[in-house]
Amino acid sequence: LRSIAHAAPDSMPFAVTTNPQGRADGAGLCRALAVLVAVLAVSACGPSDPLEGKVDAVDYVTLSMWRSGAAGRLSPQQLADLDEAVQEIRFHVMAEGKVSGSAAVEEEALHVMEGQTVRHVLRQGLGWELERASAEKAALEVSMAQNALMRTRPGDTASATYLFDLSDRQAARLKAATDQVNHARERLTAAG
User: With contact defined as beta carbons under 8 Å apart, do 34 and 46 qualify?
Assistant: First the structure.
């Protein structure tokens, strides 16, 4: 019997042998099929959509290790969105005020994420970011409308300058809040 794999036997995990008529040997073919099935089975394990993978966040070290592994499955934009969502979850936990202190906030944030799909964590964190940015935008719009009604006394240049500068600062903050709202909406849409 001669081997098809004689050119590079070290690189092949199996060898298919042939008989003198050039037909494949049944045992070698069975081994080749078994290896092929095993490779396909292993590659089929786990979700095909990386956003359906589960977040492992038992503690900070575990989350860090999980994130390092996720870097190979998620796109750079998805990783950036995930980091943003995780940060927003921390902000939300702090804002709720149920726990205090950095260790307790981190523990509660990890609890919120543990075992959830990446998609869920993205939706939750980016959704809270959208709520926060929308509330800030709405408050700025109200404040700007009220400040626009303010008038200074004739000749009071200091107050007029202050109101003008305040209006500029608020306009810049409103633009930033609007950009953040638009960004959060865009990233939420991308997360599905």
Answer: no
Is 122:187 a contact under the CB 8 Å cutoff?
Answer: yes
For 55, which DSSP code? P
For 3, the enclosing helix (H) or strand (E) is strand 2-3
- pLDDT reported for residue 148: 87
Amino acid identity of 155? G
Task: Identify the segments of the chain with pLDDT beneath 70.
Answer: 1-47
Helix or strand run (H / E) with residue 125: helix 118-148
Quote the CA–CA distance of 103 and 125 in Å, as a whole number.
Answer: 19
Instruction: Give just the sign of the alpha carbon dihedral 24, 26, 29, 31.
Output: negative
Residue 76 parent element (H or E): helix 76-96
DSSP 117: B
